[in-house]
Design brief:
The chain has three helices and three strands. It is an alpha+beta fold.
Length: 82
C-alpha cells in the first residue's frame, strides 16, 4: 500500500505544479482509449505511473462558474415521504 500512496503523491505533486495550460496540454497529448456517451477516455504517463483520464463535456452553466463546487444543474431532488 505504501508504494501506491507514494505513486499517488508523486502524481499529485506533478499535477499540482501545472497551470491550466499545462493540464490542457497533458490531456490533449494523452493516448485516447475510448469514446462513449459519458465522454472520452484517455491514459497518460506521469513519471512511472499510468493515469486514467475521463473527459466530460462541460455545460454552459458549469462553464459560467468554473470554480463552483456545488451542483449547478437543475436536477430533481430525491422524493420525500409525506
Amino acid at each position: 500500500m505504501t508504494a501506491r500512496l507514494d505513486d499517488a503523491r508523486a502524481v499529485a505533486a506533478v499535477l499540482g505544479r501545472l497551470d491550466e495550460a499545462g493540464v490542457r496540454r497533458l490531456v490533449e497529448d494523452a493516448d485516447q482509449t475510448g469514446i462513449g456517451i459519458g465522454g472520452t477516455t484517455k491514459t497518460v504517463r506521469i513519471g512511472a505511473t499510468t493515469v486514467f483520464v475521463k473527459q466530460l463535456p462541460v455545460t454552459d452553466i458549469e462553464e459560467a462558474d468554473p470554480r463552483a463546487t456545488k451542483c449547478q444543474l437543475p436536477l430533481p431532488s430525491f422524493p420525500t415521504t409525506e
